[in-house]
């Protein structure tokens, strides 16, 4: 079985060259599904950082929806050059090759929001996964302004992701949402509605789902909204807790 290093630019450069003719690709969910969450937490005037942008169309869709400033970074120079040429006449979009584990080019507290759709997941599938994840998340926390939001869209449930993101050093207040995968068909008799996905999911004091909580779609995607609190904030209630 071949093992890929998803944290390596060589892998991603080769992949984007191979798949260039296929056009853009969005991991997990398209913007029209994520829009209610993005608009709820990220004002259109925000300075947004899209980490691991690849060749996805989400940033373009956000600009069409009124967002004014989106910096897109990716470890793949191939993807960045491709997207830079594609959007050279869209001033709201900037592209820069960068490893998310070292974003020293950006000053502390310089972004209102960071959006991550699959980048942390990729690092967690690569070599030195825990260290890579910690490096990335530390950088995300550093460049976020107090009150800013890190929005993580992932296939990882709280058992797999809270250990990485729910760290005191990041000073994040975390809300969790769960949405079904695209094309999911609700089982007969289901009473859930699209609006119900907009309510944060109750989690316990350890950030886990209650034992009796049933995830309707076993292949759901999880949205962790991590708000950076000021250093003086009390994080004793930093999770949306099931009482």
How would you characterize this protein structure?
- The longest helix has 15 residues, at 129-143.
- The protein starts with 8 loop residues before the first helix and ends in a 15-residue tail after the last strand.
- A 7-stranded mixed β-sheet has the order 3-2-1-4-5-7-6.
- Helix 4 (77-86) links the parallel strand 2 (69-74) and strand 3.
- The protein contains 7 helices and 7 strands; from the N terminus they run H-H-E-H-E-H-E-E-H-H-E-H-E-E.
- 28% of the residues lie in helices and 21% in strands.
- It is globular and about 50 Å long.
- The chain is α/β, with parallel strands linked by helices.
Could you tell me the radius of gyration in angstroms? 18 Å
Structural class: alpha/beta
What overall geometry do the principal axes of the alpha carbons give?
globular
Q: Averaging pLDDT over every residue, what do you get?
A: 87
Extended strand count: 7
The SSE order reads: HHEHEHEEHHEHEE
Helix content: 25-40%
In whole angstroms, how far apart are the ends? 45 Å
Proportion of strand residues: 15-25%
As residue ranges, the low-confidence spans are: none
Helical stretch count? 7
What profile does the largest beta sheet have? 7 strands, mixed
Order the strands across the largest sheet as they lie in space. 3-2-1-4-5-7-6
Quick structural overview:
28% of the residues lie in helices and 21% in strands.
Write the layout of secondary structure elements.
Layout: H1 9-18, H2 31-41, E1 47-51, H3 58-64, E2 69-74, H4 77-86, E3 93-97, E4 111-117, H5 119-124, H6 129-143, E5 144-154, H7 158-165, E6 172-179, E7 221-228
Parallel strand pairs: 1-2, 1-4, 2-3, 4-5
Antiparallel strand pairs: 5-7, 6-7
């Amino acid at each position: 079985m071949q093992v890929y290093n998803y944290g390596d630019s060589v892998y991603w450069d080769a992949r984007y060259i191979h798949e260039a003719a296929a056009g853009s690709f969005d991991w997990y969910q398209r913007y029209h599904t994520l829009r209610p969450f993005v608009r709820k937490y990220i004002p259109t005037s925000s300075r947004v950082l899209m980490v691991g942008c690849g060749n996805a169309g989400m940033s373009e869709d956000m600009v069409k929806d009124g967002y004014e400033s989106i910096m897109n970074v990716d470890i793949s120079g191939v993807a960045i050059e491709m997207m830079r040429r594609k959007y050279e006449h869209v001033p709201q979009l900037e592209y820069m090759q960068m490893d998310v584990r070292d974003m020293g080019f950006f000053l502390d507290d310089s972004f209102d929001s960071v959006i991550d759709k699959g980048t942390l997941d990729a690092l967690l599938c690569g070599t030195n996964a825990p260290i890579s994840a910690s490096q990335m998340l530390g950088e995300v926390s550093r460049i976020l302004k107090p009150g800013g939001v890190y929005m993580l869209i992932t296939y990882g449930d709280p058992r797999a992701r809270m250990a990485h993101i729910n760290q005191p050093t990041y000073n994040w207040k975390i809300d969790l949402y769960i949405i079904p995968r695209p094309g999911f068909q609700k089982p007969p008799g289901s009473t859930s509605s699209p609006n119900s996905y907009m309510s944060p999911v109750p989690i316990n004091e350890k950030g886990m789902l209650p034992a009796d909580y049933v995830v309707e779609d076993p292949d759901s995607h999880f949205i962790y909204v991590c708000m950076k609190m000021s250093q003086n904030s009390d994080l004793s209630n930093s999770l949306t807790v099931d009482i």
